Amino acid sequence: MSRSTPTNPPNRSAVARTDGPGFGLFEIFAFQWGVALVAHTAKGGDLPLVKPHELAVTLSGIWLMLGPGSVGRLVLASVVALVAVAIELPFVTNHWMFMTFTHIAILAAMGVARLTRGGVDRQEFFQILRPALAVGMILLYALVTLCKLNGDFLSPEKSSAAEMYSWLTNKIPGLADTTGLRLLIIWSTLAIEGGLPILLAIPATRHWALLIGWAFHLILGFNGFYDFSALVLAGYVAFLPDDFAVRLHRGLARRPALQRLGDALARLARHRLTFPILAIVALTPVGLNLAGLVREPVLVRVTILAVRMLWVIQAVAALLLYLIAVGEEPATSEPEPEQMARTRFGQGLARAVAMLLPVLTLFNGLCPYLGLKTESAFTMFSNLQTEGDYWNHLFLPRAMRIFPMQDDLVTIIDCPDPEIRARAEAGNRWVEFEFRDLMSRHPDWSVVYEHRGVRREVPRVGDDPELSRPTNPILRKLVRFREVVPPERNYLRH
After folding, report:
1. Residue 68: which of 308, 237, 208 has the closest Cα?
2. Which of 18, 68, 79, 84 could form a disulfide with 53 if both were Cys (CB 3.0 to 4.6 A apart)?
């Protein structure tokens, strides 16, 4: 393609589309979102894909990766993921919670666009979703940084960042593990995670934010957190230039070998046998386990290692393509007047509905301070404590905790489960809501516990009218609290 033919507009109010490359920001986002879906289900301590809803998420992610130009595939993947979340709640990870909010925004915005306009172009739809995704990513970084501003995260002996660095020293020979290096890692983590939302929000510094963020999340991905890193790379598409696809097309045209490789991969993705073959590959670990040919722990390690390495390769390829694109001159053509008019018509309501993503993200991130929950609230590896008598944030006041659930703690003195008894003997306590839920699921247990200064001995939980009563099923789906560890043991926890 020659330099005179790009049609992708340089301004943000225009629709990012072009007839030249045959793809735009929507396709780039959809592909990376499919990668994030697959990375999510291929990460964990159990054999991936054993559960039907996990398999469905994986297959929908692969289907989306193979056809990222289809709005229908993105909608289908979003529906499948929301069904999976409804099954898994409240036991969902932090990145999966953010992806859930994104799926809600995608479906809501698409529904409004279809109702008010009768349909929407895929590039136009990404422009509808894009502001919400960008604000959501900025808020995610800000909330993750906010919860790390506590005394324990800043401690080289307790900090989760320091502990994760020690993991890296075990994987890379020659890396030292000293107090000075731990402090450097702690403050570097705060500087990167705290600086990225600012750099992303400013157009002039966005390029450097993407490069720094890519390097940071590549390290995290290599250290095992490729599921969260895959989500972030998909979110970064919201910050790419409007004419990114045109510039990438130009850059690849100047590199015939890469152009041919890209064309070959595109043809392979469109082949009717590609999806069945990849589906069989995804199911192979489960089949080997069910057949008894390979033990599950070995399959888990091999599967996670394979997906991690594939993700690292994909992340490096994404950086290469980004550098090729930004090395090209910006496109200069203007959008067609009819296209701009069509973009303005009816977009406002759909964009407003898409803002559910940052609104839900903000509320979810504030829950630990409000007293509503401490799990799946973007507090991962932060050392934050906001339960009971513990409050270790540097400047947010305890008065923010306006809901009482986290104030009501239970001390288990004795119970039949040896693991729970060991954690209780180490000083762990339980939020009363979690304690009652635990007891209601084990009616044959006996338990001795202290609650609000009163010691109780229950020979059989199922015979106790208070402990045998199930928790509210809706509330159980929405909130979850971590075990409350004593401050002196507030080390690395997800």
Report:
1. 237
2. 84
- Read off the pLDDT band of 136 (50, 70, 90): very high
Q: Which two tokens stand for residue 178?
A: 């000293």
The answer to whether the CB of 315 falls within 8 A of the CB of 229 is yes
Domain spans in the chain, listed from the N-terminal domain onward: 25-364, 374-489
Closest listed residue to residue 415, CA positions, set 451, 460, 454 = 460
At 115, list the tokens. 């109702």
Confidence of residue 42 (pLDDT cuts 50, 70, 90): confident
Q: What phi, psi does 411 have (nearest 5°)?
A: -105, 120
| pTM metric for this prediction | 0.89
* Burial class of 241 by CB neighbour count within 10 A (0 to 12, 13 to 18, 19+): buried
Output the six-digit token pair for 311. Answer: 């993700």
Instruction: Note the pLDDT tens digit of each residue in 244-277.
Output: 999 999 999 999 999 999 899 999 999 999 999 9
Parallel/antiparallel/unpaired status of strands 409-414 and 447-451: antiparallel
pLDDT-derived band at 344, boundaries 50, 70, 90: low
- Start-to-end CA span in the chain (Å): 49
Q: Hey, which residues does 411 pair with through a beta bridge?
A: 450
Residue 454 CB-density burial (10 A; 0-12 exposed, 13-18 middle, 19+ buried): exposed
Residue 401 has a CB neighbour count (10 Å cut-off) of: 20
CA 302 to chain centre: 23
Q: How far is Cα 168 from Cα 170, in angstroms, rounded to an integer? A: 5
Q: Is the peptide bond before 465 cis (omega within 30 degrees of 0)?
A: no
Contacts of 231 (CB under 8 A, 6+ apart): 36, 39, 40, 95, 98, 99
* Torsional class of 121: left (φ above 0), alpha (ψ -120 to 50), beta (otherwise): beta
Query: Residue 173 — φ and ψ, nearest 5°?
Result: -60, 140
| Token pair recorded at residue 212 | 């720094």
CA quadruple 304, 307, 312, 315: dihedral positive or negative?
Answer: negative
Q: Can you tell me the distance from the alpha carbon of 451 to that of 73, in angstroms, rounded to the nearest whole number?
A: 51
Report the C-alpha gap between 148 and 160 in whole angstroms: 9
Residue 124 near residue 172 (C-beta atoms within 8 A): no
Per-residue pLDDT tens for 442-476?
Answer: 999 999 999 999 999 999 999 999 898 888 999 99
What 3-state DSSP class applies to 82?
helix
For residue 46, give both structure tokens. 């159990």
CB hemisphere CA count around 102 (13 angstroms): 30
